[in-house]
Specification:
The complex is a heterodimer of chains A (about 160) and B (about 775).
Chain A: E1 2-9, E2 12-19, H1 24-31, E3 50-53, E4 56-59, E5 72-74, H2 87-94, H3 104-117, H4 123-129, H5 141-154
Parallel strand pairs in A: 1-5
Antiparallel strand pairs in A: 1-2, 3-4, 3-5
Helix pairs in contact in A: 2-5, 3-5
Chain B: H1 15-19, E1 35-41, E2 47-53, H2 55-59, E3 63-68, H3 69-74, E4 106-107, E5 113-119, H4 122-129, E6 133-138, E7 162-169, H5 171-180, E8 183-191, E9 203-208, E10 215-219, H6 224-234, E11 243-246, H7 262-274, E12 278-281, H8 284-290, E13 297-305, E14 311-321, E15 350-358, H9 373-390, H10 395-402, E16 411-412, E17 418-419, H11 424-435, H12 440-449, E18 453-462, H13 470-475, E19 484-490, E20 496-500, H14 509-521, E21 528-531, H15 549-575, E22 583-586, E23 589-592, E24 598-600, H16 601-609, E25 624-629, E26 638-647, E27 654-664, H17 671-691, E28 721-726, H18 743-760, H19 771-781
Parallel strand pairs in B: 1-12, 10-11, 14-15, 20-21, 27-28
Antiparallel strand pairs in B: 1-5, 2-4, 2-6, 3-5, 7-15, 8-13, 9-10, 9-12, 13-14, 16-17, 18-26, 19-20, 19-25, 22-23, 23-24, 26-27
Helix pairs in contact in B: 9-10, 9-18, 14-15, 17-18
The chains are: A alpha+beta (about 160), B alpha+beta (about 775).
Chain lengths: ~160, ~775
């Protein structure tokens, strides 16, 4: 059965018709063609699909599109652009916090939420806060450094 | 101008698209009118297909076609080949079962594809895939590696389920050394089976144009050129000049995206049959069952020593699991990438290794980050550590006593390789200092006061990179050459387009290669664009694996850049009215020696394309040069890894307090990228040592088939790493580089296990050292 979903994605109001079992990530990738959000697993474990919904990080593979009715959704494409990057994006680049780049959008979205939620962050709490996002390339070393650097800038 | 010199920590050119969501991975691509595919996979490990009914599935909503393994056979598609022919001791060729693109009459592992459902949407394809009815007559599965050779044969053409009995080294001399030695250390160990798990699942889009009869395959590949050769020459899916393979951004590979698999091949075949573009993206559950796995050895080792702990002989007997079929590189992994590394960093005079490769009813096993070298380093660095304990020697001292000295190079090992350069003491000394080995006993006491067991473990590994001198590889059974191609195309305005047959899956080729070429020409890396991953744009190239990209692919680019400079000198000589012998090229300028006359790189480029003042009678216009580089030898990165752990006696939880890695990768182009490669490799090595284990039950069902069941290293499982470098340049390639992609995964596992066994005062511990295993070991040792 088809349903209609209206929501705000990256500041823009969108209305889409989709099947009732369509997930938010399918809506984002296939209907809205925002392919920066990725799918890396089918058990809500890898976090590659992480986006913000009403200001909090969610795994978009685990949210039905219909649950996002009326919500404000922000994806990797909505946080910064080439000449005006989000501090988290810049820090990932500066610290070499990415290699293949596939987990990176989800990692950045999760990390922004982590910084917003936690007043104090040290290496251990960054590691704990990112345990829902799997990276196979970097060994996390530089990601932890990037998040720490971005956190300081986001609080300036 | 952007920093550009070799050795600078240049930020990556490719990052902007990845951090802004503008990367283009295979699943991000959609072609007009594309259909979607879902594979029907066997739920059983070993069975005869008695019958198949596709009528309900074919009639389902949205279904375009259901194509089966039987149709693949009818169309005469070849076996997915193993590219390396290994010979047994008796000289006979390895036994290679036919590897169908999709199974037609017999199933050999869980997840083996038997049919492909093509539909208008993925959902329709997936739903219909459940409507394909298959009658399986099950056969007992062969799963256990140790008993595979005495189990019933899976294939009549592979008697004893044994693909080959391979050997290397001098058997009689080694056995004599062991018989006569003052002391012999013996261990048995398992190298645990791993699932690679690049975070981007494999995906492909096959697009057959019925008008031009061109077949384009977008796919997640580490080596599109090699894939094209295999699909055309062996599987015969299309003529080579009509098949274009595009690997766009690829989200990690670690070996698993080297191979030519069933799915991409079936997709190409189906697109040609149906005349429409077809897309397939693996779900993670499919990746677990259908990507080639890694490692999976059981091994017995003996190390003979004299009274002072000098190594006299090493005897290794391994059974290697190949899985159900011989995947693309598989036969080479437990042989030429394994047995040849068993000298390690040591002057062991007698080495003998024999390897039985067996087939089982499990997914194929092939190269995974390190591919053979981690297995070699693991057994060697484990037995050296155990030997030190048995001989009451410091684990550092026993290694020093046996090191190949800097003055010994070039050093011929008893297992076929000739090491060109190295300084193992230098890496060891630097690592000891960084790890503060001298302070360890104090730290151990302090930990004990808190009730924790602290241990330290070493690993002095070596590996061989830069696959490979083609003639040597050919003499050892390789079915292909292992050179690399490169093209340096200087544009009329002096910017440069670099084309390489190497393929990035995250290693940062677009930056490292730009840095290499920019520094050759004295221009900004912003003026260099690196193109890879498209057989329609590039010369035939061999791709990325075995840490070969820079040492082989970069060397090809270095040669091509030298040709550009040589031609540029001729142009400059003409323009400056000088002899070519008197032209120097430095810092982006062609200068007449001992004069103030010069032309910039850009001026020469312009003159080459607007040849108004140009020696046309002796020189063609244009400034674009190609090179193919065939390496003269492997390269030999080596180093010392030191791991320090604390174990909680109540829970068995292992906490890595500090991990130090000092590696010699020769000349380094970009230390930031190299350190990143080391970090990632160590993480995978620690994953193998502490967390990861692929488990099949006795019926061949995969028990670890999701991220809920297979323990991937997460941020809170790992420490930060202390990384240092030493440098002895490679002596035989123009860059002096040795390769850095796999060292972390090769060096780290034995360091971790040696640290754990040190902490517990025990000799044996299998990987992964889970808290349960560690806890049980403590109970057994009575040490809780």
């Amino acid at each position: 059965m088809s349903i209609t979903v209206s929501l705000i994605v990256n500041g823009k109001a969108v209305t889409q018709t989709c099947l009732e079992n369509t997930t938010l990530v399918e809506l984002i990738r296939e209907k809205l063609q925002l392919t920066g959000t990725h799918v890396g697993c089918d058990t809500s474990q890898c976090g590659a699909c992480t986006v913000h919904m009403n200001g909090r990080a969610v795994k978009a593979c685990t949210v039905l599109a219909v649950q996002a009715e009326g919500a404000e959704v922000v994806t990797i494409e909505g946080i910064g652009v080439a000449d005006n990057l989000h501090p988290m994006q810049s820090a990932f680049k500066e610290c070499h916090g990415l290699q293949c780049g596939f987990c990176t959008p989800g990692m950045i979205m999760a990390a922004i939420d982590l910084v917003n939620q936690k007043a104090e962050l040290d290496d251990q709490s960054i590691r704990k806060g990112l345990e829902g996002n799997i990276c196979r390339c970097t060994g996390y070393h530089n990601i932890v450094e990037a998040v720490g650097r971005a956190a300081a800038r986001m609080r300036e | 101008m952007v920093q550009q010199s070799i050795g600078e920590r240049v930020l990556r050119k490719e990052d902007l698209r990845f951090i802004t969501g503008k990367g283009s991975y295979t699943d991000d691509i959609n072609l007009p009118g594309q259909a979607y595919a879902c594979f029907v996979r066997s739920p059983v490990a070993h069975a005869i297909i008695k019958g198949m009914d596709i009528s309900t599935a074919t009639a389902a909503d949205g279904v375009i076609a259901v194509l089966t393994g039987e149709q693949v056979a009818e169309d005469g598609l070849g076996s997915l080949p193993c590219g390396w022919m290994v010979h047994s001791k008796d000289g006979s060729e390895m036994k290679q079962p036919f590897h169908p693109v999709m199974a037609a009459d017999k199933i050999n592992y869980v997840g083996e594809p038997v049919a492909i459902v093509v539909a208008e949407t993925f959902l329709a394809a997936k739903n219909a895939s459940e409507l394909v009815e298959i009658d399986y007559e099950e056969i007992d599965a062969v799963v256990d590696i140790s008993s595979a050779q005495s189990a019933a044969d899976i294939y009549p053409e592979v008697p004893g389920n044994t693909v080959y009995n391979w050997e290397l080294g001098e058997k009689a001399d080694t056995e004599k050394a062991i018989r006569e030695a003052a002391h012999v250390t013996r261990i048995s160990l398992t190298n645990n089976r791993l699932i690679p798990n690049a975070i981007e699942p494999r995906a492909a889009i096959a697009d057959y144009n019925t008008g031009t009869q061109d077949l384009t395959l977008y796919t997640t590949s580490q080596n599109p050129g090699l894939a094209r050769l295999i699909l055309t020459a062996f599987v015969q899916i299309a003529p080579e000049h009509k098949l274009r393979i595009i690997a766009p951004d690829v989200g990690g590979g670690f070996g698993s995206k080297i191979f030519v698999y069933s799915e991409e091949t079936a997709l190409a075949w189906a697109s040609k049959k149906l005349g429409i573009p077809i897309k397939w993206t693996a779900e993670r559950s499919e990746s677990f069952v259908a990507d080639a796995h890694g490692r999976d050895h059981v091994t017995e080792v003996e190390l003979a020593m004299d009274e002072e702990g000098h190594f006299l002989g090493l005897h290794v007997k391994t059974i290697a699991n190949m899985g159900a079929y011989l995947s693309t590189f598989s036969a080479a992994v437990p042989t030429y990438l394994y047995g040849t590394l068993l000298a390690g960093q040591y002057k062991t005079p007698n080495i003998y290794v024999e390897v039985d490769a067996v087939v089982t009813n499990t997914a194929p096993v092939d190269a995974y980050r390190g591919a053979g070298r981690p297995e070699a380093a693991y057994l060697l660095e484990r037995i050296v550590e155990v030997a030190a304990r048995e001989m009451n020697l410091d684990p550092v001292e026993i290694r020093r006593r046996n090191f190949i000295a800097p003055s010994d190079f070039p050093y011929q090992t008893p297992v076929a390789l000739e090491y060109d350069s190295g300084d193992y003491e230098a890496s060891l000394n630097k690592a000891l200092e960084m790890a503060d080995y001298d302070g360890f006993s104090e730290r151990k006491k302090e930990a004990a006061s808190r009730g924790k067991k602290r241990g330290i473990g070493f690993s002095c590994y070596i590996e061989a990179c830069g696959l490979a001198p083609s003639q040597l590889a050919g003499s050892l059974g390789a079915g292909v050459g292992l050179w690399e191609s490169g093209e340096v195309r200087v544009n009329a305005t002096g910017t440069v387009t670099v084309l390489t047959g190497s393929q990035s899956t995250g290693q940062g080729h677009e930056t490292t290669f730009a840095q290499l070429v920019a520094s050759k020409f004295g221009i900004s890396i912003d003026d260099v664009e690196v193109i890879h991953g498209d057989t329609g744009k590039l010369d035939f190239g061999m791709g990325t694996y075995g840490s070969r990209s820079l040492v082989v692919g970069g060397s090809a680019l270095s040669k091509a850049a030298d040709k550009v400079i040589a031609k540029g000198k001729k142009i400059a000589a003409h323009m400056l009215d000088s002899d070519v012998e008197d032209i120097d090229f430095e810092d982006g300028e062609f200068r007449v020696r001992k004069s103030n006359q010069s032309k910039t790189f850009q001026e020469i480029a312009f003159a080459a394309y607007v040849p108004h003042d140009y020696p046309l009678e002796e020189l063609e216009p244009g400034l674009s040069e190609k090179a193919f580089y065939d390496p003269a030898n492997f390269t030999y990165p080596a180093g010392t890894h030191i791991c320090e752990v604390e174990i909680d006696p109540d829970t068995g939880v292992v906490d890595i307090i500090k991990f130090t890695a000092v590696d010699d990768f020769g000349i380094i182009i970009n230390p930031m990228i190299v350190e990143g490669q080391v970090h990632g490799g160590i993480a995978q090595g620690i994953g193998q040592a502490l967390l990861e284990q692929c488990i099949y039950d006795e019926t061949g069902q995969l028990l670890t088939g999701s991220y809920m069941d297979y323990c991937m290293p997460r941020a809170d499982d790992l420490p930060s790493f202390e990384v240092g470098m030493t440098c002895t340049p490679c002596t035989h390639n123009p860059i002096g580089a040795k390769g850095c992609g796999e060292a972390g995964a090769i060096g780290s596992p034995p360091a971790v296990i040696n640290a754990i066994t040190d902490a517990l005062g025990i000799m044996e511990m299998d990987m992964p050292a889970t808290s349960e295993r560690v806890w049980r070991a403590m109970q057994q040792a009575g040490g809780a």
